[in-house]
Input
Amino acid sequence: LKVDGKAYRTIWVADDGASVAIIDQTKLPREFAVASLATLDDAAAAIRDMQVRGAPLIGVTAAYGLCLAVAADPSDANLARASDLLEATRPTAVNLRAALERMRGALERVVPSERAVVAWALAAELADEDVAQNRFIGQHGLSILEGLRKARREDRPIQIMTHCNAGWLATVDVGTALAPVYLAHDAGMSVHVWVSETRPRNQGAFLTAWELAKHGVPHTVIVDSAAGHLMQRGDVDIVIVGADRVTRSGDVANKIGTYLKALAARDCAVPFYVAVPSSTIDWAIDDGREIPIEERDADEVTHIARIRLAPENSGARNIGFDVTPARLITGLITERGICTPSRESLASAFPDR
Amino acid sequence: LKVDGKAYRTIWVADDGASVAIIDQTKLPREFAVASLATLDDAAAAIRDMQVRGAPLIGVTAAYGLCLAVAADPSDANLARASDLLEATRPTAVNLRAALERMRGALERVVPSERAVVAWALAAELADEDVAQNRFIGQHGLSILEGLRKARREDRPIQIMTHCNAGWLATVDVGTALAPVYLAHDAGMSVHVWVSETRPRNQGAFLTAWELAKHGVPHTVIVDSAAGHLMQRGDVDIVIVGADRVTRSGDVANKIGTYLKALAARDCAVPFYVAVPSSTIDWAIDDGREIPIEERDADEVTHIARIRLAPENSGARNIGFDVTPARLITGLITERGICTPSRESLASAFPDR
Output
């Protein structure tokens, strides 16, 4: 995505070749700031504090975190410690674990003195792979949007609803759920995006609205509670969200509130798609209820910009994700095409997993 | 409800007998402030700016607004003008229109010189009627909670979820959806309330949490998006919400987001009740889609406490209410008992309407 005329990824190796640059997403939309990760602890903190977020980007950031760790100390002990530290930063997105497993597997096969070189090369490969997969997801998703446009008689924009941020900022580049939107917009198709603000951290209002505005895509911010009403009134043609983890049978863990949108989509006969690179599929789990669900500080619910919203003596819960059962999902848009959310369909699309 | 040891209603005639006192709800939870309404315009502004809100309280405030109007000028022309002004303040709650129709009907039957006396008496009657109806709603709702407790083996609290504020602050006293909760708590039943923050104006976090805390009822604030997840995990025994308008066939317009909670309740087999005095039933409408839905300033979505949340160049929509179809509702808790949401059941409970 271009920011003020200059093309950026969300993460890249700095010019010194020894540190990693990220866009600090905690500062958006008010400030576009680049932060530097010089150590393993920097990388772990960036994931934990959500300077980077989004399942695919978390995975790549963890890979670079391992680069920083082995550059400082390539021993077996440090590799194991660094990997454990990074894996513990956030629990729900499986991409984190998948990236660490690939990195660790490759690094354990070479002697410590060669590990830094191998690590930097593989992390770059993971980053490029994410971008390539997202471009495919965009193409497959675009075909769905084109189908909707053809089925439509009137000449109004295709109305897409999304939740949280599964755009450019959630990945290395391009985005997952928003990839088809950007492709459609760039191809001249008239689209409009309903941006659900996504309480409590407001990634929709803060990040999705920002990147859509930067790219010039028409969009409108709504409170999360408005999703059902808009679908009832026929104002939504398709819902596309990302995911933090998909089970092998197609249950989807994603930002809290996704399940409510899926229920409304089903009730209103609106197609509901989940756009995911295969790195987000957890082949070890069948039932979505087995996915660990992150719960964060209650302060994120009770305060905004350090202003307390709820009374002093009211507690709060801050559950980060929920699980949408496969039965409510129309399709999974992957880099290999559109799968129905079932064990058979996923397994046949990824026989090499 | 008692505030710091003193019993309050949310609206009452001031000691001077010529003005009306209200609790200014825009200042809660930070400040408990009483505001004075001395003129018709004060009353209209209090409703429009949501110093008072909640369908039953809006109705009674409008009635008192008409008192202030006819005390100043009891002419036919002023009565009509005042009534029109008050009716235009907010569109969705039918209680407003119902209260104004009753007031106007009574006042038109007497000569102008007697109107002020009749108006003050009838407004007081409407206020007392609201309190009495809510006490009945509380009793009928309590029987549902007792049934849930008996059906349960373990000794954990009954988990009640609500949305927005349908408590003491939404009525003259007692509340609608929260009336059974207060009665249950006072009777020694162990209850816990999930308080949905209710974006964009946060009436859950600001008002419901505040009044539950004042009364000592255990509760937890959640983001609106978390409702489905908690029901999936078995953490909700019953949902009880209020309503702004119920059609004669049982469709319910209530604060935006109610429909999503009803969908999740149905999907998770959680009973979903709507607590309403019969003044909230619109006997002229069958289909919920005919109910006018208020849309408010986009600023309420894009800003909080004057801090802008969404980017400058992102628009927003601020739809105030949504409609939950009768098919998703377990029962309507009215002052005459629990009705199934159907034309027949409602008509037979209120043959005298």
